[in-house]
Amino acid sequence: MRFMFVGDSMTIGRAGDYTWRYRMWQHLNATLGRPYRIVGPRCELYDTRTDTPTSHAYADPGFPERARRHLAGWGEGWQHMAPVIGPAVAADRADVLLVSLGLIDLGFYTGAEETTANMRRFVAEARAARPGIRMVLLPVIPNSRADEDELFAAEVARFNELLAKAVADLSTDASPILLGARPDAYDIHRDTYDGTHPNASGEHRLAGEFAAVLHQAWDIGGPYRPAGPA
To answer: What is the 3-state secondary structure (H, E, C) of the chain?
Structure first.
């Protein structure tokens, strides 16, 4: 089984982060009970000093390079990932996509309706490359801008509503799509370092939501039990 992590700055992480990808790697190692691979065309973190995705300075230097693979980018959203997901999926023969996207789109690029259209294009491109691919999508999670800006909060709520409808429309028996929930008790004051990007506890909460969906819906892995630093 091949997993690909897809996302924006909350997924790629910055130099010095563990990332929720690291937490998922720990979880899969502990619970999956069968061979698997983490795949993707990238493995770096974002370097805030150079404003480039070129760092390899993970908080745990023991995080193996083979498990650092991903398709995530600082400042990249659904509109950036839709054109590249097909080639990435085809090249690495991904079986399951774990996707956290949407906030950067709504914050800088597109409104709720256009963001949803880009999400639908993403799904179509992934399926064209791998017709039986499975996907778990997270809604846009709490963030400081939505906390402070009522209009932006309404746009986030609108997109999350459209995302849920799109998942219901697009999911099939051959290629199921599941929608995760807002991570349980997620608090931007406790679970982020700047109101948006997850700190260690936030990483655990994001990984825990993906793990719960995989386990409950498809019997992949087991219940999430945080391991390592928190």
So the answer is: CEEEEEECHHHHCECCCCCHHHHHHHHHHHHCCCCCEEECCECCEEECCCCEEEECCCCCCCCCHHHCCEEECCCCCHHHHHHHHHHHHHHHCCCEEEEECCHHHHHHHCCHHHHHHHHHHHHHHHHHHCCCCEEEEECCCCCHHHHHCHHHHHHHHHHHHHHHHHHHHHCCCCCCEEECCCCCCCCCCCCECCCCCECHHHHHHHHHHHHHHHHHHHCCCCCCCCCCCC
**pLDDT reported for residue 184:** 74
Please answer whether residues 228 and 23 qualify as being in contact, where contact means their C-beta atoms are separated by less than 8 angstroms. yes
Cβ count within 10 A of residue 4: 27
Residue 220's pLDDT is: 97
Tokens 């690495």, located at residue = 92
How far from chain centre, in Å, is Cα 42?
Answer: 14
Identity of the residue numbered 5: F
Instruction: List the end-to-end C-alpha distance of the chain, in Å, as a whole number.
Output: 28
- The list of the chain residues with pLDDT below 70 reads 230
The mean predicted confidence, pLDDT, of the chain is 96
Q: What are phi and psi of 48, to 5 degrees?
A: -70, -20
The token duo for 225 is 């039990």
- The pLDDT assigned to 183 comes to 83
| CATH code, residues 2-218 | 3.40.50.1110
- The predicted-structure confidence for 17-67, as pLDDT tens digits, reads as follows 999 999 999 999 999 999 999 999 999 999 999 999 999 999 999 999 999
Phi, psi of 42 (to 5 degrees): -125, 160
